[in-house]
Amino acid sequence: MKKGLLIIISGPSGVGKGTVRRKVMEDTSLNLAYSVSMTTRAPRKKEVDGVDYFFVSAAEFQRNIDEGGFLEWAEFVGNRYGTPKSYVEKLRNEGKNVILEIEVEGAKQVLRQFPGDELTSIFLIPPSFEELEARIRRRRSEPEAIIQERLNKARREMNLKYQYRFIVLNDDVDRAAAEIIDIIHSRINTVTYR
């Protein structure tokens, strides 16, 4: 059995990573699996444990760090986020093409570990910074201080987009998803490390 691709979809907070990723995953021809991340933050409205994230205590998260159990992890606004290494490798060894929907800091860690063709890295950008701010504010899930922190971080992260193999504009969810689907099909057909 061929080992599956590792695919990163990253970008600043509020760019629509989750929405685009869910649309991409509707294409069953891609044989995709979503790598559920672990986090210490509380669930947002409509988020489901084990589907959107594995919601864990700070102590359990730290235990995973100490045991080298993460492919990547990062801390942001007082919460930690990480990708369980064994979970990703299990899916890839089953031939699944695994999508990591992760923040930029975590993506940098993965990019260092998987140089070359083994990793397909995609950076989502918003139509404008003003639109990104509007998307974050529409959530209405965080106080102004956190919103400002997210916006400041997003400004820094936008400068890192050229470290990714592909940059995709999320001006329209269907269009952005279709572009990512084309990228993944192309990578499935051309990556030879498998």
Count of individual helical segments = 7
Hey, roughly how much beta strand do the residues contain?
A: 15-25%
Number of domains: 1
As for the CATH topology, it is: Rossmann fold
Query: Per the principal axes of the C-alpha atoms, what is the gross shape?
Result: globular
Strand order in the sheet with the most strands: 2-7-1-8-9
> What is the number of beta strands?
9
Encode the helix/strand succession as letters: EHEEEHEEHEHEHHEH
Biggest pleated sheet? 5 strands, parallel
The residue fraction in helices comes out at: 40-55%
CATH superfamily: P-loop containing nucleotide triphosphate hydrolases
Question: Tell me, what is the CATH class?
Answer: Alpha Beta
Kindly report how far apart the N and C termini lie.
9 Å
Contiguous low-pLDDT stretches (5 residues minimum) are: none
Structural category: alpha/beta
Mean pLDDT: 90
User: Based on the structure given, which CATH architecture is correct?
Assistant: 3-Layer(aba) Sandwich
Rg computed from alpha carbons, rounded to a whole number of angstroms: 16 Å
Topology at a glance:
Blueprint (H helix, E strand, L loop, with lengths): L5 E5 L6 H8 L7 E3 L2 E3 L13 E3 L2 H9 L3 E7 L2 E6 H9 L3 E5 L2 H10 L5 E7 L3 H11 L4 H15 L7 E4 L3 H18 L4
Parallel strand pairs: 1-7, 1-8, 2-7, 3-4, 8-9
Antiparallel strand pairs: 3-6, 5-6
Helix pairs in contact: 1-7, 5-6
Descriptors for this entry?
five-stranded parallel sheet, alpha/beta, 194 residues, single chain, Rossmann fold, 7 helices, four-stranded mixed sheet, globular
What would your notes on this structure say?
By secondary structure, the chain is an alpha/beta fold. The chain has a single domain, classed as 3-Layer(aba) Sandwich (Rossmann fold). Helices cover 41% and strands 22% of the residues. The chain is built from 7 helices and 9 strands. The strands form 2 sheets. A 5-stranded parallel beta sheet has the order 2-7-1-8-9, with helices on both faces. A 4-stranded mixed beta sheet has the order 4-3-6-5. A hairpin with a 2-residue loop joins strand 5 and strand 6. Helix 1 packs across helix 7 and helix 5 runs antiparallel to helix 6. The mean pLDDT is 90.
